[in-house]
Amino acid sequence: MNGDESAEQAGRRDRRGILLWWGPRVLFVVGAVVLVVESSRGVPLSELYGALIFFGVCSVVFVVRQLWVGHQRRPGGDPPQWLVWAAAFLTAAGVLVLVVHGAGVEGDALPLVGSVLLLLGLGWFVEAWRGAKPGQPRKAFRRWGVALCALTVLTAGAVAVLLPKAKGGLFLVLLIALGVALFVALPLGLNVLSEWGVRRLRERKSAAGPEAGFGVVGWLGIAWFVVVFLAVACLWYFDWVLAAVLVAMALVLLLAIVSNTHADVALVLAALCVLAAAPPEHPKPQALHPAGGERVLVAIGDSYMSGEGAGSYFEGTDDGGRNECRRSPSAYAVGLATGNRRFDRLLFLACSGARTFNVIAKPGAGFFKVQRGEPGTQIDQLASQASPFRPALVIVTLGGNDAGFAILGEACIAPGGCEEQESVFTSNLPKVRGALTATFRSLRKALPAGVPIVAVPYPQPFDTPDSCKGVALTKTERDFIHRFVDEVDKTMFDAATDANVGIEYLAEMKDSLKAHRLQLCQGRKSDAGINFVDIASVNGFASQRFSPAKWIHNSLHPNERGHEAMLDTFTTWLDDHPELLERRAPTGQGQATSQALSAPEPECSMTKNPGNPHCQDRIRAWELEQTRGRWPWLLLVLFGLAVLWAASIAVFSLLPGTGPSYRGPASRPRAR
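RESULT FIELD:
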């Protein structure tokens, strides 16, 4: 009877053990599947919240189980064999999916699915490795951990030396090698070194006896965590929000790696899916479908006109790899057409990234190119409107991309003083002036006589105080950007004059952000009317949404507050110029009074030109050189992360050791 009772109790214990082992683990995998499916569909972040909450609950249940119960072991103390086989299967499947996608097999979700399989597989490998019996020699963990971290350091060093001179396939191979080192070898190395450190500290604590308490190492770890927490709070208070987020993420991620709970896998997966969440899209209102003979406003130009940076866009204009014009309902041109009595329709042609050759008419003078997803150049689209079509007003903002605005932003955010490269940008402005002149003439030719055209300059993004909270640019860099924006605006004015086709110039727009106290450095960065660094993905294919290259496109662009200020400035200007919309007689349309095309050749070209190096290549080579030249600061950052990692090990060594484990049927006591 007692034997039967013992067998029955052992059976219940086995069933409880199986449930305790499989329940949280299956829940974690199911949550990951739900999150990946929602992310692959490209749903807006608001719709993704449900999947994120479900995955968060699943992750918490699994993490708590791992911390409380510990890891399943066989009677001999080794990890279960099926866990090793499952890890091998997931890892191989992830690598295979990524290789198949790299070979050209189409599949929108393949990059995400392959990455997640690889992530889960490596996580299970680490769990099996770290779940080995406590008596296993620590030297094995130490050797593997040091080897993997050393591999990361050697790879990063080789890439730093070779990357500035690499081109084509070698450049891509080096980037892939760096990615594998940083995101595969380094986390694995830190995981096994963490196990070595935690076991060693626990052994010392056990040898010291229960009266030892936390010990010096434990108290130092807790003190360091308090310091880091206070640093995050200070960075947030002083408006260094991105730095605060990065430090907090480093803290949480290191804790997750040391814990051996798959928390690091959960954090990386959730962050990846949140970053790639599709921004909201809006259907086109009736006001964006112009009809002939009505009071139509035509908006032509680049991202400052289309509304990039304003956070949400009209359907079909923020699809990565297809159409990235990013026309926003918050753009001031939309506000003019929908909220101003002078207009009742908007022909919204402005497109993010547009250059003069994306706007000029195809049959016109000069090179032309149609932007991806668009039916023609912007002037060709204007000319194709059904007759009769006579706009009430045409507004244009153009020339910034020809002048290298995107390259400038990248150079100034990178290490080093971007003012050192000022001549690279200013030497191209005569070319920009000539291209704008030809574009303005092409635009006038495409319009009925007498239709007013207004050239709208770029608003100044920065105020010029000696200090600036929350903006990671030096005083000299901010002054350089301020000067350069002034020069680009003057280039636009000179081109409008050169064209001699009766184009108005709205000079007041340059100070629209300043007049409303919305410039960066005029107050808190979070209250500015222009984004500094803004992270958001795109709609469309998963391969586009999960590409880091698509995450910072909103940076250094006016947001909703900025476009409201620009709308107010434009409306006030129209009120002061009522005669503009009453013109019907042709204005002077003679030949250009001056030409800037005879200026010396620039140091590099902003267009692909076999005879002249591309400015982007030159600037990126300079950025890499600047980054390599700041290796002492990099070492300081790495030292801080190492101390934070050591503090994490100290904190986890204070927790109780691995709890009771389910040992399987082999450990069942025999009935007597």
